[in-house]
Write a sequence for this structure.
């Protein structure tokens, strides 16, 4: 078996860099390219971390609440129904809600106008559901035989 | 012998210019090369930069060499270990053995391995020492137990692994492990482990520890 000690091998090391039978330049270029890609990924991770990921719930004891309960309606003995709104909706009033709580309750009639637009899709005819349009479409210059007879007698 | 005779004889002596040049007298255009015991192949595992890349796409043979001079030419032309990207591996394996457990030359073998903290040691020097011991066949004096050597570059650590062709030659493997520790400049407190390829996995237990 041919053997060389480390010292013998180091003694045979040429000073010059000799050519090789593969494309060493391309090999080094591939490695340099990979290092650049890895550096870019590292930068991206440092800039965003986990924030560009969807929120995971694996570390919570319960799953995030996605489906909310229906609004609760209670009806008293007199037949009045009360809607218990969600906490979030109450919170939207903000600071003003505190003032309102202390003031006596005043019932107000809503002044908001509700506009209802007729939907022709649900009417059997595809024509517009407006009588004025129907009148306009009616032919008006028809011959009236009775009116013509009356005019003859007058003469 | 007269002075004239000596002069004549001296003039007749000349350096044989036709003798083959060695690396020692001309390191640019030498002709005589020092053969190694066997051919060796350098493999490189490229880190995956795309999820679609499989192991077979990443592991590629770079080149082969069977002389000392070719070895040095390759060493000088490829990046040193500290210059490799993370998740890269250099493999130097005997002949055409693939650096995989599935290769018939490896399937009944195992590996001595040791993790070195990259910042605390000069991995370039240790890798070169390991290569010289392996290709010079001084790490395995009795018979050719060594199939190859692997260097894995990972975050904060580098793994050196010496692959053997058998897993049950305890005495030979112990001798190799002891020399491997010397090559890696490890002390008594540093432990290297031998794990057979047949049990390699998450719960693999070393069969030898030095």
């Amino acid at each position: 078996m041919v053997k060389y000690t480390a010292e013998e091998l180091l003694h045979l090391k040429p000073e010059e860099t000799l050519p090789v039978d593969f494309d060493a330049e391309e090999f080094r270029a591939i490695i340099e390219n990979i290092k650049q890609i890895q550096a870019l990924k590292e930068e991206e991770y440092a800039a965003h971390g986990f924030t560009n990921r969807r929120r995971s719930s694996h570390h919570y004891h319960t799953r995030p609440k996605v489906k909310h309960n229906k609004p609760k309606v209670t009806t008293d003995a007199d037949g009045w129904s009360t809607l218990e709104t969600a906490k979030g909706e109450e919170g939207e009033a903000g600071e003003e809600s505190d003032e309102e709580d202390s003031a006596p309750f005043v019932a107000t009639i809503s002044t908001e106008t509700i506009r209802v637009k007729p939907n022709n899709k649900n009417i059997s005819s595809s024509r517009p559901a407006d009588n004025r349009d129907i009148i306009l479409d009616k032919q008006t210059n028809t011959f009236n035989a009775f009116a013509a007879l009356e005019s003859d007698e007058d003469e | 012998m007269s002075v004239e005779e000596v002069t004549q004889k001296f003039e007749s002596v000349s350096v044989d210019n036709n003798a083959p040049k060695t690396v020692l007298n001309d390191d640019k255009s030498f002709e005589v090369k020092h053969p190694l015991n066997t051919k060796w192949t350098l493999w490189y595992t490229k880190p995956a930069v795309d999820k679609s890349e499989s192991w077979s796409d990443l592991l590629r043979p770079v080149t082969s060499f069977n002389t000392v001079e070719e070895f040095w030419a390759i060493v000088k032309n490829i990046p040193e270990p500290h210059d490799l990207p993370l998740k890269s591996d250099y493999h130097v394996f005997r002949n055409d053995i693939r650096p995989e457990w599935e290769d018939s030359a490896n399937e009944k073998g195992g590996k001595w391995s040791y993790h070195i903290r990259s910042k605390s040691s000069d991995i370039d020097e240790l890798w070169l020492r390991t290569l010289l011991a392996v290709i010079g066949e001084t790490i395995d004096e009795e018979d050719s137990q060594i199939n190859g050597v692997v260097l894995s570059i990972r975050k904060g650590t580098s793994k050196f692994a010496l692959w053997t062709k058998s897993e049950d030659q305890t005495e030979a493997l112990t001798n190799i492990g002891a020399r491997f520790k010397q090559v890696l400049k490890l002390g008594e407190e540093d432990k290297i482990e031998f794990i057979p390829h047949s049990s390699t996995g998450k719960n693999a237990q070393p069969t030898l520890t030095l």
About this structure: The two ends of chain A are 147 Å apart (CA to CA). The helical segments of chain A are 6-11, 24-48, 87-91, 96-102, 131-137, 145-154. Confidence is low (pLDDT under 50) at residues 89-100 of chain A. The longest helix of chain A spans residues 24-48.
